[in-house]
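User: Design a sequence. Structure:
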C-alpha cells in the first residue's frame, strides 16, 4: 500500500498540470480571438482619427500659410471635417460591404459542398454569421473617429487672433493628439507602443510641414 501512494500522488499532480496547461491554452486562444474580432472597428477608428487630425490640421496650416485671418482657418477646418467625415464613412461602407459580399458568397459555396452534414453546417453558419463584417459599424466608427480627430486643430485655433500663437497652438495640440492616438492604437491592438507613436507623430508632422511649405511657396510666387 505504501508503495502505491507516490504513484497516486504523481498521477494527481500530472492530471492537475495537464488541466492547468489546457486552461491556459484556452484562455490564450480566447484572448487572441477577442483581439482579432476587435481588429475591424479598431482599424476603422484609428485610421479615421489619424486622418481627421492630420488632414484637417494640414488644410488649416496650408490656408494659414497665405492667410492669417482666423476665420479663414476655422472655415477651412470645418469644411475639411464635414467633407472628410462623409468621405471616410462612404469609403469604409463600400469597402466593408464588398468584403461582406465576398464572405457571404463563400459561405453559400461552402453550404453547397457540405449539404450532408446538417448539424455541422448550422454550427459553422452561426460562427460565420457572428464574425461577418458590419459595414454600418465600420462606417460609423470611421466617420466619428475622423470628426473627433478633426476637432482637435479646430478647437486649438479657435478664439486665438494672434497668428503665430494660433499656428503654434495648432502644431502643439496636433502633436499631443498624435501621441495619444498612436499610444491608444498600440494599446488596443497589443502592439509595441514606441514604434506606433513615433510612426504616427512623424507622419503627421511631416504632412503638415509639406502642406504649409508648398502652399507658402505657391502663395509667395503669386500663382
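Assistant: Done.
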Amino acid at each position: 500500500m505504501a508503495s502505491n501512494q507516490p504513484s497516486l500522488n504523481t498521477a494527481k499532480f500530472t492530471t492537475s498540470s495537464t488541466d492547468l496547461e489546457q486552461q491556459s491554452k484556452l484562455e490564450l486562444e480566447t484572448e487572441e480571438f477577442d483581439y482579432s474580432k476587435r481588429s475591424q472597428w479598431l482599424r476603422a477608428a484609428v485610421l479615421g482619427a489619424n486622418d481627421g487630425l492630420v488632414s484637417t490640421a494640414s488644410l488649416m496650416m496650408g490656408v494659414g500659410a497665405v492667410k492669417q485671418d482666423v476665420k479663414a482657418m476655422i472655415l477651412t477646418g470645418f469644411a475639411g471635417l464635414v467633407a472628410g467625415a462623409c468621405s471616410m464613412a462612404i469609403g469604409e461602407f463600400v469597402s466593408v460591404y464588398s468584403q461582406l459580399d465576398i464572405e457571404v458568397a463563400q459561405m453559400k459555396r461552402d453550404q453547397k459542398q457540405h449539404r450532408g452534414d446538417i448539424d455541422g453546417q448550422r454550427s459553422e453558419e452561426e460562427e460565420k454569421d457572428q464574425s461577418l463584417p458590419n459595414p454600418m459599424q465600420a462606417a460609423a466608427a470611421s466617420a466619428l473617429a475622423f470628426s473627433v480627430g478633426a476637432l482637435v486643430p479646430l478647437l486649438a485655433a479657435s478664439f486665438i487672433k494672434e497668428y503665430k500663437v494660433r499656428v503654434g497652438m495648432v502644431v502643439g495640440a496636433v502633436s499631443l493628439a498624435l501621441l495619444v492616438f498612436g499610444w491608444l492604437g498600440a494599446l488596443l491592438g497589443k502592439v509595441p507602443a514606441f514604434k506606433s507613436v513615433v510612426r504616427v507623430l512623424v507622419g503627421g508632422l511631416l504632412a503638415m510641414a509639406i502642406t504649409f511649405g508648398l502652399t507658402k511657396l505657391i502663395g509667395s510666387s503669386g500663382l
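DSSP finds six helices and no strands in the chain. Confidence is low (pLDDT under 50) at residues 11-15, 28-36.
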